[in-house]
User: Which sequence fits this backbone?
């Protein structure tokens, strides 16, 4: 088996799950992405990605509480697994390595 | 709390999403909706919601459904079938009616579909079928564009030479002339062969058992035989490479058998028992290069990828080019595979053909199945009351409506399957007889998995069609109502049942009328005066030495007293072999292209055939030696040529002048369903192939024939003795129509039988459910007649509506059919009356026994049990 990779959107969702902790469920993740990144995302896309990440073992889920706003439907709360966290870290480090290779422009008044 | 509509979107979502994910997704969507509603207002929130829901139709969601066996509970299915079989056994009469009706409908339909399927396979087996075309002629005749598929012999070699797109082209001619084949002592007359070009065997896929298709017809004196003809000539011995002798008139030619072709399949429009190359005719000096002689079929194989339409534009003027503009007949190519079903042209454009018959048969087959299904639907819904308690109990103990639907569908599929199995058995038994009737070699290929698959799917479909409506109806019962015992008979159900019965009987009515009209038309044509006396007249083909010995043979026939009159003619009196629009007469419009039938006779035709002379006299060479160019007209010809006094008029034909000596009353040369065409009977300067004689009816027939045989063998020793009775041949002209009659009669009986089965079942049930009512009525003084009237009124009214509705379609369809005959009977109203009476009587007989029995039941026995 070769090393697994995550797509850009998958990585984004995985990061959000890690960040939101106990409040990581479909609608909340979508809202966070929209408010923080000013990016339109569709709920179904978020759900599909969550399920795919769960299949890959980077996150796990449990059924949480219901609110009136949800018409009495329970949430499914996602939490990041250690595998998922390791994956995120690896990706970030690899990205940093690459970033360092870019010649940094010096802003000087010379 | 805002209202998150529309409901259909949520329903859709519940279908799209797997159950274990649904709650979460719904919750997220709702949360989203409420947020949107706060920010954007309810209307756009709703729009967004629908859009968001629709977006769940994506593989990442759809493929998360987990299919498992417990969605289709096998043990429940087994239970359904068990219950179904118990229900069937308990209601024996209804099961029998259902199964019998469906079996008959399916058998009839299956036979028809096998036949239809066969029609579509005609000439589909040729490897080059997509590139083979038949050449047709198109010309303006009598003001309309006429198309015909006989073309000149020179066409094939010419197109091969002149057009690069032509792969190969062959002429094919079955002249229908009989040759004598001899090998040792075996002497066989055959007219079932054809002349063709060597490429024929490579163009078409008629595989050779022996011989090389590339070379088999390469030599002028080579011949290819079919397996069965070779067997006929050689017994079991090897035929390949042998030499046989073929006699034509007085000449004999030796041919080497260079190929044995495998038995022709049944689904080809070709029928030949031997093939002789055209080169042979050309080697004995009969080269035909005349562009006006449309005597052969021409098949053209284009190179793959050639656009036939464009090619037709190029080939169109070929005849005009080769006759320097004299002959303006156009040539066009028409696909070989369309020849069987689409070969009728109206005014130059394809206008259907046999396909219309095939469509009609398809509709007939479907209708047979439909009326059988109607029986099932009506009986099931009528008896629904009996099952209502079962439905109630099942629902109360937790059955979903869905599982009840499945249960009832299982019952209908079980019944259909039983009927299907019986139908297949019947089809196997009936197929040979039915195949003989429709002149097709039909087979049900039971080694083929696809056939069984098709039958299986058919049974399943019919089961669902027949059982679908009853299943939904039965499963809709409200358990509280049915268990409390309140009756749930709706008038709308009754109405629906009646509509279906009306359909059944209008279909039966249409078929009965069809049967009657077909029979009327045949009788009408049979009673038509043929214009000549068919009895005691025989004809023989002039073969071998008969031509040379004709005078002596004729004299001895007359002297020995077996014949009273003898004449020789160009064709049998029952056939037209020649016609032309090139006759010339005084006062003919030069533009006119009236086709006139041509018939040669030496003399005494009037007395031999028993024609009626209207004016003038018969031909008589002894008294009038110039009668060799004499000519008789029929009345139609006199009218077409516009003569007031035709005797003595001169008529030119192929450079000879013929003088009119007499006029005969119209007589039938062609089909008795056609009008009599203008016709000339020309004198002894013509050509002759047939001897007609009128036998002496004062002597016993056997004696006549025995003497005839003796004389024949004396004057024509090589050829086997052969003769035809004109009245037998004349009868054969009705064969096609009589077949139509037999087929319509069979399917009409089938349809009526199925409809009456349903009627029987329905009336049995209705009477059963009114037993108490009848008892009370009797106690109160109703007579048997009162009760019979009460019980039959309802069904009879339905049947009469069916009869009335069947009339217009029958009238329209059969008028169309009658229009296809030039000589036709008129559609008379009494046919409707007879058909209606027939249905009412048959239906009445079906229910009368039940009704009388019910009316005579002692009220004590029907009322005492509760």
Assistant:
């Amino acid at each position: 088996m070769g090393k697994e990779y995550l797509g850009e959107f998958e990585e984004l969702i995985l990061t959000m799950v890690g960040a939101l902790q106990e409040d990581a469920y479909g609608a909340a993740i979508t809202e966070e992405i929209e408010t923080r990144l000013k990016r339109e995302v569709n709920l179904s896309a978020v759900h599909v990605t969550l399920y795919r990440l769960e299949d890959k073992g980077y996150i796990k889920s449990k059924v949480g509480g219901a609110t009136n706003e949800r018409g009495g439907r329970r949430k499914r709360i996602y939490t990041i697994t250690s595998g998922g966290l390791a994956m995120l870290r690896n990706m970030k480090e690899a990205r940093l390595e690459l970033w360092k290779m870019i010649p940094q422009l010096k802003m000087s008044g010379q | 709390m805002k209202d998150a509509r529309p409901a259909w979107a949520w329903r859709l979502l519940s279908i799209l999403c797997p159950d274990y994910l649904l709650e979460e997704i719904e919750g997220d969507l709702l949360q989203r909706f409420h947020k949107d509603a706060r920010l954007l207002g309810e209307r756009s929130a709703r729009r967004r919601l629908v859009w968001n829901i629709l977006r769940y139709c994506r593989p990442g969601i759809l493929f998360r459904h987990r299919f498992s066996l417990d969605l289709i509970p096998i043990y429940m299915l087994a239970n359904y079938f068990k219950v179904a079989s118990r229900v069937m056994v308990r209601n024996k009469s209804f099961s029998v009616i259902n199964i019998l009706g469906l079996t008959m409908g399916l058998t009839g339909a299956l036979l028809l579909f096998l036949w239809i399927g066969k029609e579509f396979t005609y000439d589909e087996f040729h490897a080059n079928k997509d590139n083979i075309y038949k050449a047709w002629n198109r010309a303006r005749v009598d003001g309309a564009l006429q198309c015909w598929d006989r073309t000149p012999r020179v066409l094939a070699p010419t197109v091969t030479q002149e057009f690069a797109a032509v792969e190969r082209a062959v002429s094919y001619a079955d002249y229908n002339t009989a040759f004598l084949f001899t090998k040792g002592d075996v002497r066989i007359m055959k007219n079932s062969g054809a002349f063709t070009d060597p490429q024929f065997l490579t163009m078409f896929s008629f595989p050779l058992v022996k011989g090389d298709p590339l070379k088999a017809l390469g030599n002028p004196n080579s011949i290819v035989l079919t397996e069965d003809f070779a067997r006929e000539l050689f017994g079991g011995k090897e035929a390949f490479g042998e030499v046989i002798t073929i006699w034509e008139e007085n000449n004999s030619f030796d041919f080497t058998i260079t190929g044995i072709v495998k038995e022709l399949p049944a689904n080809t429009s070709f029928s030949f028992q031997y093939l002789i190359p055209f080169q042979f005719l050309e080697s004995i000096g009969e080269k035909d290069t005349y562009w006006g002689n449309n005597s052969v079929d021409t098949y053209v194989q284009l190179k793959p990828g050639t656009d036939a339409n464009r090619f037709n534009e190029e080939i169109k003027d070929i005849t005009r080019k080769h006759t320097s503009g004299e002959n303006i007949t156009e040539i066009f190519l028409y696909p070989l595979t369309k020849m069987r079903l689409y070969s009728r042209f109206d005014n130059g454009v394809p206008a259907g053909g046999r396909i219309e018959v095939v469509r009609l048969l398809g509709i007939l087959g479907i209708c047979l199945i439909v009326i059988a299904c109607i029986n099932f639907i009506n009986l099931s819904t009528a008896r629904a009351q009996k099952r209502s308690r079962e439905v109630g109990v099942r629902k109360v103990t937790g059955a979903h409506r869905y599982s009840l639907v499945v249960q009832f569908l299982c019952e209908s599929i079980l019944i259909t399957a039983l009927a299907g199995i019986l139908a297949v058995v019947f089809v196997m038994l009936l197929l040979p007889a039915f195949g003989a009737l429709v002149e097709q070699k039909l087979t049900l290929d039971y080694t083929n998995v696809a056939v069984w698959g098709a039958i299986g799917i058919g049974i399943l479909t019919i089961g669902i069609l027949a059982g679908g409506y009853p299943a939904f109806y039965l499963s809709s019962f409200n358990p509280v109502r049915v268990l409390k015992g309140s009756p749930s008979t709706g008038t709308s159900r009754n109405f629906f049942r009646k509509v279906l019965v009306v359909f059944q009987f209008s279909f039966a009515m249409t078929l009965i009328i069809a049967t009657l009209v077909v029979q009327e038309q045949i009788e009408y044509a049979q009673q038509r005066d043929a214009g000549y006396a068919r009895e005691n007249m025989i004809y023989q083909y002039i073969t071998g030495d008969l031509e040379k010995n004709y005078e002596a043979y004729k004299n001895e026939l007359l002297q020995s007293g077996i014949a009273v009159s003898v004449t020789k003619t160009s064709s049998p009196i029952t056939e037209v072999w020649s016609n032309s629009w090139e006759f010339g007469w005084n006062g003919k419009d030069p533009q006119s292209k009236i086709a006139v039938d041509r018939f040669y006779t030496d003399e005494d035709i009037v007395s031999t055939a028993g024609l009626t002379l209207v004016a003038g006299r018969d031909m008589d060479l002894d008294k009038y030696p110039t009668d060799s160019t004499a000519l008789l007209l029929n009345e139609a010809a006199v009218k077409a040529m516009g003569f007031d006094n035709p005797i003595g008029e001169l008529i030119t034909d192929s450079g000879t002048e013929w003088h009119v000596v007499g006029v005969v009353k119209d007589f039938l040369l062609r089909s008795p369903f056609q009008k009599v065409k203008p016709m000339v009977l020309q004198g002894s300067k013509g050509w002759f192939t047939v001897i007609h004689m009128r036998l002496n009816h004062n002597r016993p027939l056997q004696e006549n024939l025995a003497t005839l045989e003796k004389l024949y063998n004396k004057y024509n020793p090589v050829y086997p003795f052969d003769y035809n009775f004109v009245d037998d041949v004349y009868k054969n002209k009705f064969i096609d129509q009589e077949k139509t009659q037999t087929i319509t009669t069979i399917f009409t009986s089938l349809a009526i039988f199925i409809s009456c089965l349903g009627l029987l079942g329905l009336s049995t049930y209705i009477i059963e459910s009114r037993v108490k009512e009848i008892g009370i009525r009797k106690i109160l003084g109703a007579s048997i007649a009162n009760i019979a009237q009460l019980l039959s009124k309802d069904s009879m009214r339905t049947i009469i509506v069916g009869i009335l509705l069947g009339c217009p379609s029958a009238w329209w369809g059969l008028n169309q059919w009658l229009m296809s005959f030039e000589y036709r009977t008129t559609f008379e109203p009494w046919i409707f009356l007879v058909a209606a009476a027939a249905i009412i009587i048959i239906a009445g007989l079906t229910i009368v026994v039940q009704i009388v029995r019910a009316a005579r039941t002692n009220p004590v026995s029907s009322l005492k049990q509760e």
Strands of chain A lie at 59-66, 74-80. Chain A has one domain: 8-90.
